[in-house]
């Protein structure tokens, strides 16, 4: 099917292409009736704007850069997280008519030939040389949980630290005095953010931190929880990714875990299961970083938009202690 051109709309409406462009983009000083007539003709002909042509005229490339790290591929959890981040970015980009260019964090020199509107840096643990190169070339940068200095940049706070503080506050409100913290044994930045938030919280309140690290296969789960209890924990915040899985495994080991143990889980993608199990959980939405980036893209590129955006999170109270 042949695309209807701007010139064809202009000829059918009996006006110039400049007037047609002004009408369809709500610019210029056309009379209202003229503007509406042009829009009606465009709709009748099925005219849709050529986004690539518009991009060329505006200096936009309609492409987003995504930074990938070889180091993250050596950790199964980091690799899975990176795959999810890339998938959501591709989906959001497609909705806005953008393509995605994937580049390694160890090759900042590739930015010299890359044509990007913005560079998305999803993992604060990656090599930041690519960020410095982007800044030197005037390429706007969007980064997760990393402050971006400069005129053209956006920091997206994913909410993991806020979620930890909310979960701990909830447990404290229920009367918990010694809250243990379960975290995955991994180099994923979100785990570092969560543990740092927990340690800061305990320091402010003058409490002794009780941290237990769980292996990927969860073989040490019961032992680590038992150790927390032996150290005096009367509640647990499970920052591990699979909150329901942790809960169900604790159910199996009920003979060594007190039934009245207070339990809060982090929730990233299993909210419905958490709700069915009656688990109190704190929901975070890191997948919304890509959508948020496009919502603020115009301001990011112009250099005068918001510098920090917080993604939403919410605490959902459950009906059971554990």
From TrEMBL:
The keyword Amino-acid biosynthesis does not apply. Pfam families: LacI. Keywords: DNA-binding, Transcription, Transcription regulation. InterPro entries: HTH_LacI (IPR000843), Lambda_DNA-bd_dom_sf (IPR010982), Peripla_BP_I (IPR028082). SMART domains: HTH_LACI. Residues 4-58 form the HTH lacI-type domain. GO terms for molecular function: DNA-binding transcription factor activity; transcription cis-regulatory region binding. PANTHER family: LACI-RELATED TRANSCRIPTIONAL REPRESSOR, LACTOSE OPERON REPRESSOR. This is DNA-binding LacI/PurR family transcriptional regulator. It comes from Microbacterium telephonicum.
